[in-house]
Design brief:
Elements (H helix, E strand, L loop, with lengths): L2 H6 L10 H14 L3 E7 L16 E4 L4 E7 L3 H12 L8 E5 L6 H11 L1
Antiparallel strand pairs: 1-3, 1-4, 2-3
């Protein structure tokens, strides 16, 4: 990753720092029978900032995998894939990875493992 890109993602929390958020969202999804998806996109292709310039609350960086991971409550796998297409523009869809509850896994560890093996 270039020094410029490292500076750009410096304010984005690391994936390990948002595990509590992911666990809380997964517990809520399980409790209410709602979907939850995680979406991983390559760092080189996506900016972590919203239109107002702040880092999204539901995004983390996994530098060891060179990707951003987004937590998408109330989002099914097909909806997450459509979001990936919108966010990545010309990026080939194979470079985006999606893991969804309940279809792919029912634990945070399982969802992250699915992301790692799919992406």
């Amino acid at each position: 990753m270039s020094p410029e890109r490292q500076a750009q993602v410096a304010d984005v929390p690391l994936l390990g720092e948002v595990i509590t958020l992911i666990n809380a969202e997964l517990a809520r999804a399980r409790r209410y029978g709602r979907p939850l998806s995680l979406l991983a996109l390559p760092i080189s292709e996506v900016a972590p900032y919203g239109p107002d310039g702040r880092v999204y609350d539901t995004i983390a960086v996994a530098p060891e995998h060179d990707c951003f991971v987004m937590v998408l409550p109330e989002t099914t796998a097909p909806e997450a894939r459509r979001l990936a297409e919108r966010l990545s523009g010309d990026l080939p869809p194979a470079r985006a990875a999606v893991a969804s509850f309940p279809g792919d896994a029912d634990t945070v560890e399982g969802l992250l493992l699915h992301l790692a093996t799919e992406g």
